[in-house]
Structure formats: C-alpha cells, structure tokens
C-alpha cells in the first residue's frame, strides 16, 4: 500500500478521511487558486470542470514533493445561476454573497482527483443542490458575528456541520459532497487500487 497524502489544509477533509479509517498525511498545496481559476471563469468553463482543474492542480503540486505517494486533491465550486462564487475576502463580501443566495437554490460541485508521480489517475466530481431559507438581515448579522472569520474559509460562507445549517430550508445531495470531498466514490477507487481493504 502506498503513502496517502491529502493535498489540503482543510481540517474537515483530513478528519473525514481519518474517521473513515485511512492513515494519511495532510499537506497544503502551494498554488495561487485565484490565479488558476480566474482565467477558467473568464473562459466560462463549466463550474464542475473548474473544480476538477483546481483539485488536480493541488494534487499535482503536492505530488511533486512525495514521489510514489497517492495524492488526493479536492476542490469545491459554488454555482449560483451560472455565476461561480469564490471564498470571500471580507466579512462584507460574505454578507453580500449570503444575501444574494437568500431564499434561492445553488449548487455545490465537489471534485476529487488522485495523482501519483505527477499524473492524474482518477477524477470524480459530485454535485449537491442547497436552498437557503429567506432569513432576516438581523439573523444574518448575528450569524456572521457567531462565526467570525470562519465565514472566509468556504465558498458559501457556511459550514453545514455547524451554525451554517440554520441558513437552509432544503438540501439535496450527499453530506460528504457538501462538506467538500465525495468520500464514497473515493473510497471505492482506493479499494479498486488495493490501497485499502476490500
């Protein structure tokens, strides 16, 4: 079995894999995500494809430092009526994004790519549809105060595993996809590769 490395600084993704029984290392990729995705968005690449390109770029970068290892890269893109949202840089931008999403549905596209020695050997993208409730501006203010800078750590400024669940009235899709790593397909691939027990 190979060394398995998660190309991510996300504690949620790492914990998800460890909770599933995998022994992994985690190492953040050293790439400028905005420099990678901005030309893709300008070229109107499909949101699912943007997520795949970013996931592969992260895994490829970390793979260069771990010869022979199986490196898992992942990324998530929020698609709101064809507009791709990126992580907000300020609380005010997070507020504006959440007000735009209020009372509407959007899609999250979560991609995972496995790379060995710089070559992508498996790619997968999964999608979920989330509908926000028509919350009051006052609630939004309280919510952003509760979570603080955590609002800047995800494309939607919410974490459904925490207080962010209160923003929603309906969710269609796999929990693991929503939190940013399509776990069941990934585990299936790892079993097929002989990296984990069948």
Record keyword descriptors for this entry:
Maf protein, alpha/beta, 7 strands, 7 helices, 7-stranded mixed β-sheet
Describe the protein's architecture and organization.
The chain is an alpha/beta fold. The chain has a single domain (4-192), classed as Alpha-Beta Complex (Maf protein). It is 36% helix and 25% strand. The protein contains 7 helices and 7 strands; from the N terminus they run βαβααββαββαβαα. Strands 1, 2, 3, 4, 5, 6 and 7 form a 7-stranded mixed β-sheet that branches. Helix 2 packs antiparallel against helix 3 (47-63) and helix 4 crosses helix 5. The radius of gyration is 17 Å and the shape is globular. It starts with a strand and ends in a 6-residue tail after the last helix.
Question: Helices, strands, pairings?
Answer:
Elements: E1 4-6, H1 11-19, E2 25-26, H2 33-42, H3 47-63, E3 70-80, E4 83-85, H4 91-101, E5 105-116, E6 119-132, H5 137-147, E7 168-172, H6 175-178, H7 183-192
Parallel strand pairs: 1-2, 1-3
Antiparallel strand pairs: 3-4, 3-5, 5-6, 6-7
Helix pairs in contact: 2-3, 4-5
- What name does the CATH topology carry? Maf protein
Shape: globular
Strand proportion, as a percent range, falls in 25-35%
How many structural domains does the protein architecture include? 1
Biggest sheet statistics: 7 strands, mixed
Rg over CA atoms, rounded to whole Å, is 17 Å
The string of secondary-structure elements, in order, is EHEHHEEHEEHEHH
CATH uppermost class: Alpha Beta
**What's the N-to-C terminus distance?**
13 Å
How much helical structure, as a percent, in the residues?
A: 25-40%
Query: In the CATH classification, which architecture applies?
Result: Alpha-Beta Complex
- Number of strand segments: 7
Number of helices: 7
The helix-and-strand class reads alpha/beta
How would you state the average pLDDT, rounded? Answer: 94
Unreliable segments of 5+ consecutive residues? none
């Amino acid at each position: 079995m190979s060394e398995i490395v998660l190309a991510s600084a996300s504690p949620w993704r790492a914990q998800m894999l460890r909770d599933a029984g995998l022994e992994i290392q985690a190492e953040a990729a050293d790439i400028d995500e905005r420099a990678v995705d901005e030309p893709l968005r300008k070229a109107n690449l499909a949101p699912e494809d943007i997520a795949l390109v970013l996931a592969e770029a992260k895994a490829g970068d970390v793979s260069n430092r771990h010869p022979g290892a199986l490196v898992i890269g992942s990324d998530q893109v929020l698609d709101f009526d064809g507009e791709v949202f990126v992580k907000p840089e300020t609380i005010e931008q997070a507020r504006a994004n959440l007000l735009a999403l209020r009372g509407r549905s959007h899609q999250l596209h979560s991609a995972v790519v496995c790379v060995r020695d710089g070559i992508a050997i498996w790619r997968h993208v999964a999608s979920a549809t989330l509908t926000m409730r028509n919350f009051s501006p006052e609630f939004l203010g309280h919510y952003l105060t509760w979570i603080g800078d955590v609002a800047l750590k995800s494309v939607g400024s919410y974490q459904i595993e925490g207080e962010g669940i209160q923003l929603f009235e309906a969710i269609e899709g796999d929990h693991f996809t929503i939190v940013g790593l399509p776990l069941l397909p990934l585990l299936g691939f790892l079993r097929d590769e002989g990296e984990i027990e069948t």
